[in-house]
User: Which sequence fits this backbone?
């Protein structure tokens, strides 16, 4: 990295639950930024395994498998869903290229992959594909909303929503945040879901003094899509670059563009 990127040398908090080589961290590092891993939400897969394993066993009964996150893919993999041949007639819809790559790593290929737009675009693409005889399996986060299944049911489909994993607050170190803020290590944050926004805001409000909370919310907080952006603003951030397209690349690009504009 030569320093050409406006993100060069900047410390950026990654609130998504991922490792040092995760997609957001890797993209930030490619642009010379310093990823600071502060996952806002942890995920519990084990408590959901029984119902999910049963649904995976019956995948041949469905016309569509709908996956709206990489974690849904991992949850299905945890119950060995992809270790058997793909049932004839089962099509797979995913929320974007990242989730398509995740399922591709297990030897399955997605049939419907919006390039951007998130769950709303996925719904718009799926609705014309379903009818009164269509059965859909939707493994999702326990905290996921009902917009997608409700829209498909309105179009006539039978949708079996199964909780695939459960988000849990991951906990935040007040001392770590205070030290990093005091030393100027944090210059921005990234959010990929409303649940991460809510969890981090609540954790920091409980852990940090007023001055530190105000300092965090004065930082730019990039959001992956309009729904997450709305949650970020409602949580008190005022500078909210929004990913366009709504991909990890778009998220990092929005933050890079923000810092490219002279103050």
Assistant:
């Amino acid at each position: 990295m030569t320093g050409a990127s406006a993100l060069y040398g900047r410390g950026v908090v990654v609130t998504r639950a991922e490792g040092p080589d995760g997609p957001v961290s890797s993209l930030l590092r490619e642009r010379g930024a310093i990823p600071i891993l502060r996952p806002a939400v942890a995920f519990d897969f084990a408590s959901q395994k029984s119902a999910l394993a049963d649904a995976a066993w019956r995948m041949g009964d469905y016309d569509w498998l709908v996956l709206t996150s990489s974690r849904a893919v991992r949850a299905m993999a945890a119950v060995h869903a992809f270790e058997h041949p793909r049932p004839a007639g089962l099509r797979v819809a995913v929320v974007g290229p990242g989730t398509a790559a995740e399922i591709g790593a297990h030897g399955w290929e997605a049939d419907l992959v919006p390039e951007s737009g998130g769950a709303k675009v996925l719904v718009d693409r799926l609705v014309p594909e379903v009818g009164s005889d269509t059965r859909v399996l939707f493994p999702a986060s326990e905290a996921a909303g009902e917009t997608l299944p409700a829209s498909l049911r309105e179009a006539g489909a039978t949708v079996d929503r199964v909780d695939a994993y459960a988000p849990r607050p991951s906990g935040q170190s007040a001392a770590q945040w205070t030290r990093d803020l005091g030393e100027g290590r944090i210059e921005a944050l990234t959010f990929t879901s409303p649940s991460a926004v809510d969890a981090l805001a609540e954790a920091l409000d409980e852990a940090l003094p007023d001055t530190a909370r105000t300092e965090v919310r004065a930082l730019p907080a990039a959001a992956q899509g309009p729904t997450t952006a709305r949650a970020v603003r409602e949580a008190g951030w005022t500078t909210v670059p929004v990913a366009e397209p709504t991909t990890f690349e778009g998220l990092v690009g929005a933050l890079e563009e923000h810092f490219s504009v002279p103050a």
Observations:
- Strands lie at 11-14, 34-37, 41-44, 64-67, 91-94, 135-141, 158-169, 188-191, 221-223.
- Residues 44-167 form a domain with the Rossmann fold fold (CATH 3.40.50.10090).
- The mean pLDDT is 89.
- The longest helix spans residues 194-207.
